[in-house]
Design brief:
Elements lengths: L1 H18 L4 H11 L7 H15 L4 H8 L29 E4 L9 H16 L3 E6 L9 H22 L8 E4 L4 H13 L3 E4 L3 H10 L10 H13 L8 E4 L14 E5 L13 E3 L1 H11 L4 E5 L6 H10 L6 E5 L2 E3 L6 H9 L14 H7 L3 H11 L6 E3 L1 H12 L5 E2 L1 E3 L1 E7 L5 E6 L9 E6 L1 E2 L2 E7 H4 L7 E4 L3 E9 L2 E7 L8 E2 L2 E2 L4 E8 L5 E8 L11 E4 L3 E9 L2 E8 L1
Parallel strand pairs: 1-2, 2-3, 8-9, 10-11, 12-26, 14-21, 19-22, 24-28
Antiparallel strand pairs: 4-5, 5-6, 6-7, 13-25, 14-18, 15-16, 17-18, 18-23, 19-20, 20-21, 24-25, 26-27, 27-28
Bound molecules: zinc ion.
């Protein structure tokens, strides 16, 4: 009830600022938009809204503004309309929400990471809270410096797109935290656990620990007094044990029904230089310790994590309690997979090292770099993730769905060019002179301009390329229109060519085909990804203006699909086909 009153007041204040006075119906409508689950409780809601509206209408503008700032910000879904995610539980009276994304710098981010990034980001912005980027770098053997930068770069691109596409502002993280910078602090919390008798150093071999944990049997180290544990802990820190010889374990219960809770390891020795800290440390916390202590130290109020960590919640809550830290919300969400494409490093790495993939930015795989190289706009990805919502259910995204979001974003924005795949020469006879085609850069956006393509006539004959797929469908006597250029009648079809007869005037109720002039055409190769292992390659000619395209340009090839310019080789433009 109190939460509802707070929400009603905030939305009423927003309404009042906009219209001079708050009114019951619009405020009620907004509440239901924020939380559609309340639709069955309108009768109960109404008196709350009435009271909120009445109170708000007697406030001065200053009060209204600070109250309205507590209203959840609302992003825009694919339809452009306001769409709302379910409200968070446990939002404090000041409305201060602090969330974080905590990637491990051990690889290139994939589409799977976008949900982990978007869920806490959207909520932080919805509640006008703070959003942290925290590098979870306490596993030095698999972490590398280049991945910190890769994550920063990819996450920035996604968040900036979220601001542009969804209006969630500002589209960046508010603070960056490097977990390994806090190792000293984590050590002192570990020492507190030891002194309080809540943790002990166990020197059992890993195999015995595993057996004991599943059998629910304690080892002799469990009963060592804190002084002994502190000494052993110091020895761990000082290098008196080799990797694997000693662990710091939390003292909970060896017979707990949740196996994860049976005296879990919280610190272990990793004898490997750290990408940032070098050889300064050799004892590193496990995930459970690091995540709970760092969330507590950095003021996180709502910690989102992928749901496979659910059994760990209890361990983390126990650590927080033993250290006297405040508790906060821990929220799980489901994972994203892409149908038919590998997302995990485990699957992608062998393809990269075998040379089947060009690298981590291969357009056939859904790493964020790969998707970008394929021409998938980050705006499309954030819109897709926003519409998927913070669901706890695992979801499978198809390449078709990604394509559909991307098409909607690119279609009104990118220039169009004619590209003729598998070109066949066509002669147009009877032209009155040189021809000039006028094609709009974008048919619905005159402001993007018009391109003129001159096609010279030699003794009344004009030569162009048309694609094999059009060529094989044309029949003698048929009329066609060469887009933007001329109408013509098909006079002859041979296996390697086409003879056309010039027709005066413009008729567009006949098949319209695209073409490229023989003189001045731009050679182009388009690669169309098919799976993680293969792609289809199309060679042909594009219109002359395609020679000005630069790497990274996004275009639509008429009747062929969307594509991104990947580079060039001599005069040949290389493109990647994003999708149809
Ligand atoms: Zn032991």
């Amino acid at each position: 009830m109190e939460d509802l009153m707070r929400l009603a007041m905030a939305l009423a204040a927003e309404n009042a600022l906009k219209h001079g006075e708050a009114r019951v119906q619009p405020v009620l409508g907004k509440i239901l938009a924020v939380d559609p689950g309340l639709k069955g409780r309108v009768r109960e809601l109404l008196p709350i809204v009435r009271e909120a509206v009445e109170r708000v209408n007697s406030m001065d503008p200053g009060e209204l503004e600070s109250l309205a700032s507590l209203a959840p910000a609302r992003g825009r879904g694919e339809g452009g309309g306001e769409r709302r995610w379910p409200p968070l539980e446990g939002v404090g009276p000041q409305g201060t929400v602090v969330t974080r994304v905590a990637p491990e710098p051990n690889g290139h981010p994939t589409l799977g990471h976008v949900k982990g990034l978007m869920v806490p980001f959207v909520y932080a912005r919805m509640y006008r809270g703070r959003f942290l980027l925290r590098f979870e770098d306490t596993n030095p053997r698999v972490e590398r410096l280049e991945f910190y930068d890769a994550i920063r770069e990819e996450f920035s691109i996604v968040l900036e797109a979220a601001e542009r596409r969804l209006g969630l502002s500002p589209g960046r993280w508010d603070e960056e935290i490097i977990e390994s910078d806090h190792l000293g602090e984590m050590y002192s919390h570990a020492e507190r656990l030891i002194s309080d008798g809540n943790a002990y150093v166990c020197t059992c071999p890993a195999e015995r620990v595993r057996r004991n944990r599943s059998a629910g049997v304690a080892c002799p180290h469990r009963d060592q007094p804190p002084e002994v544990n502190l000494e052993l802990w110091d020895r761990m820190l000082e290098g008196g044990f080799a990797e694997g010889e000693a662990h710091l374990r939390l003292k909970t219960s060896m017979t707990h029904p949740n196996l994860t809770m049976r005296d879990p390891g919280i610190f272990r020795i990793v004898d490997h230089p750290h990408p940032i800290q070098g050889d300064r440390y050799r004892v590193y916390p496990t995930y459970d310790f690091a995540v709970s202590v760092m969330d507590a130290l950095t003021g996180v109020t709502h910690a989102f994590r992928s749901k496979e960590f659910e059994p760990h919640v209890e361990v983390q809550r126990t650590i927080l309690k033993m250290l006297g830290f405040r508790q906060f919300e821990m929220i799980q969400f489901g994972r994203i997979t892409v149908e038919g494409l590998p997302l995990s490093k485990r699957h992608i790495r062998p393809l990269v090292s075998a040379g089947i993939l060009w690298g981590w930015d291969d357009p056939r795989i859904p790493t964020l770099r790969g998707l970008r190289r394929r021409g998938i706009a980050p705006e499309a990805l954030v819109a897709l993730m926003y519409d998927l919502g913070p669901s706890k259910v695992d979801s499978t995204v198809t390449m078709d769905a990604i394509a559909s979001y991307n098409r909607k974003w690119l279609d009104p924005r990118v220039p169009r060019y004619m590209f003729v795949a598998d070109p066949v020469r066509a002669e147009i006879h009877g032209a009155p002179g040189d021809l000039t085609a006028e094609v709009r850069v974008h048919p619905d956006r005159p402001e993007m301009g018009v391109r003129r393509i001159r096609v010279p006539a030699r003794a009344g004959v004009v030569e162009v390329y048309v694609s094999w797929s059009d060529h094989r469908r044309l029949r003698r006597g048929q009329e066609v229109r060469l887009r933007g250029l001329v109408n013509a009648e098909v006079r002859g079809v041979t296996p390697d060519g086409l003879t056309l007869r010039y027709l005066p005037g413009v008729r567009t109720d006949v098949p319209i085909i695209h073409w490229a002039p023989v003189e001045g055409a731009t050679p182009a190769v388009v690669l169309a990804p098919k799976s993680a292992y293969s792609y289809e390659s199309f060679g042909g000619f594009g219109e002359p203006a395609m020679s000005e395209l630069r790497e990274g340009d996004l275009v639509q090839l008429v009747r062929f699909g969307f594509a991104r310019v990947d580079g060039r080789e001599g005069a040949t433009v290389k493109l990647i086909r994003s999708h149809g």
